[in-house]
Amino acid sequence: MDLGKWRALFHAGNPSRQTTFGKELRERLQSELHRQILINTETEQLPHADNRVVLSRDQVDLMGLPRPEIHFQLGGYEHKGMKTARLLHEYIFEKMGATHISHSGPHTGCHIMGVYRMGANPKDSVVDKNLRTHDHKNLFLLGSGVFPTGGTANPTLTIAALALRTASYVSAKLKEE
């Protein structure tokens, strides 16, 4: 759970839902901006068989290649987590004596993960622990697609660590030849 004011521009909620302008807006900002708080909760996204990326049968790009289609739905675990978080937020705000509470809907960090999973078994994964594909020994896939779930932390450092491990593996293999 994050506690802070990192969305300070979202005075008393989402600006697209506000109808305050001019002097009234200025007065409201002066009154409320320094007295607001944001509570943000993130939940892990579990793998679901229906969540996938496939090649489109209907749409092609400028080169005539099939465009990707992303199929993604949140499951019961995620919805339950968001509901629990909202109830917790309301409890905290009630204990604080908050008088104006606004909730936003679920948002995503937009890290596409799990498209080509890492694992030991070619039947349920695409790459091994060194990110080499099971089917093509000279093809390595680096990126967040290897993660089977989407946790709440930014995946960048883990992606970098996996890339460095893969580079070391490839370098060692080249020295063997």
TrEMBL record:
Gene3D superfamilies: FAD/NAD(P)-binding domain. Its cofactor is FAD. InterPro entries: FAD/NAD-bd_sf, GMC_OxRtase_C, P2Ox-like. Keywords: FAD, Flavoprotein, Oxidoreductase. It comes from the Bacteria. Residues 47-163 form the Glucose-methanol-choline oxidoreductase C-terminal domain. GO terms for molecular function: oxidoreductase activity, acting on CH-OH group of donors. It holds the Pfam family GMC_oxred_C. Belongs to the GMC oxidoreductase family. This is GMC oxidoreductase. It comes from Candidatus Kentrum sp. LPFa.
